[in-house]
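May I ask for a single protein's sequence together with how it folds?
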Amino acid sequence: MYELQIVHLMSIEAFPTLVTPNTPPFDQFELVREAKRHVCRVSGAARKYTSFYVAGVYGGIATAYALGCSLRCIFCWSDSRDHQIGRRVSYYSPNQVVEELWGAARKKNVRKARISGAEPTLCKAHLLQLLPLIDDSGFESFMLETNGTLFGADPDYVQEVAQYNKVHIRVGLKAGSPAGYQRRTGAFGDGFKLPFQAIKHLLDAEASFHVAAMTDPRLMSAKERTLLIERLTELSPQLARNLEEETCDRYPSTQRRLEAAGVDAIDFFVRRKPLNPLP
């Protein structure tokens, strides 16, 4: 039987759940440390998950829905990135995660898997024990969707992940400038460099990966998009040409976060007006 836990807000409450226009920026590595304390367990290299199911994206993919993230993006769709008071969740070992994923996959006859709803690199020991099990399983591939924070800071982590045959990494860029990064993630603006550093480390490791970016013109100006693509082109023209450009969808959690950030949801989603331009 899996060990049930109650997620309590302790010192994690020093970090915002919703980013408002008056929210002071935070150190995302401090948030990493606090998030890990709440969702990662050294014993058994376990991590907290809420559910396992097959999602329709990627043509159908078995999904482990996890808790915990290093950012507070105002356009985020997930309802599990934050540590909600009283939320009953379970620790799962890497073996248990693969069992749950495979059980979900068999029901829908899919052969791809991923972790979603959170930052999958947050619990390093858990991920590094999970990936060899995926390699040895009947899954064809494992999609690792990351914001690049930890991969940008730790090239050795990238090398360790890149050695597994079935993993493909999707690096999600949030901004092309420090101001855009701070406004949309809540973290200090200098953090916008981290996913670009992650991309360099992935290139050095000859990893299987591609790059996505939230370049929705309602969120990012044409000027900032140009800066993002120029910076990506300096690393790899091919990655820039094949950039996956995202748009912001109207999930209830996304609307709640945008409204907290001072965005009129009707203007944004119905009239499709952009955010006020950055200085």
The CA atoms of residues 12 and 153 lie 22 Å apart. The first helix runs from residue 28 to 39. Strands lie at 4-7, 40-41, 46-55, 61-66, 87-92, 112-116, 141-146, 167-173, 209-213, 244-245.
